[in-house]
Amino acid sequence: MPERCIECGCCIGGCATANLKPDFIGAAGINRVARFMVDPRDKRSELEYFEVVGSEDGVFGCIGLMACDDNCPIGVPLRGQLAFVRRKMAAVGWKMR
Ligand code: SF4
Ligand code: SF4
After folding, report:
1. Residues whose CB falls within 8 Å of the CB of residue 39, separated by 6 or more in sequence, listed in order
2. For the chain, give me the number of helices (H) and strands (E)?
3. Distance from the CA of 57 to the center of ligand 2, in angstroms?
4. What CATH number corresponds to the domain at position 11?
5. Which protein residue's CA is at the shortest distance from atom 8 of ligand 2?
6. What percent of the chain is modeled with pLDDT above 70?
7. How far is the CA of 44 from the centre of ligand 1 (A)?
């Protein structure tokens, strides 16, 4: 489950983008945003989330090879979480900032 991330950093350590770009948010960060997006207690709008992850340092920097998903020791579904955020951004026509 996404909310069970233990912040070990294994997904970041195996990520080519994170190793090349120190400001890349990484799969754990994008997963955290996805978790808040589905939390009914969180009143922020989708656009407010996209301001954080809708950039070259966020979702648009991800090259999609899914080492993060392979490396997570507790099976956080990072592949699905990244795809979820991408779909939500595409649905509103979000362009890279
Ligand atoms: S899919 Fe690849 S580039 Fe994207 S966050 Fe995962 S490991 Fe990094
Ligand atoms: S590898 Fe999994 S548990 Fe570790 S920080 Fe990444 S998402 Fe969280």
Report:
1. none
2. 6, 0
3. 18
4. 1.10.1060.10
5. 5
6. 97
7. 25
Distances (CA, A) of 25 to 21, 40, 49: 9, 24, 13
Q: How far is the C-alpha of 1 from the C-alpha of 25, rounded, in Å?
A: 20
CA 16 to CA 5: how far, in whole Å? Answer: 20
Residue 96 pLDDT grade (very low, low, confident, very high; cuts 50, 70, 90): confident
DSSP H/E element including 97: none
pLDDT of residue 10: 97
Q: Which residue has the tokens 């990520």?
A: 15
The answer to whether residues 21 and 55 touch, using CB atoms and an 8 Å cutoff, is: no
Residue 83's domain spans which residues?
2-91
Q: Is residue 33 part of a domain?
A: yes
Q: Is the pLDDT of residue 2 over 70?
A: no
Q: Given this model, what pLDDT does residue 3 score?
A: 61
In a domain, 37, yes or no: yes
Section 68-78 average pLDDT: 96
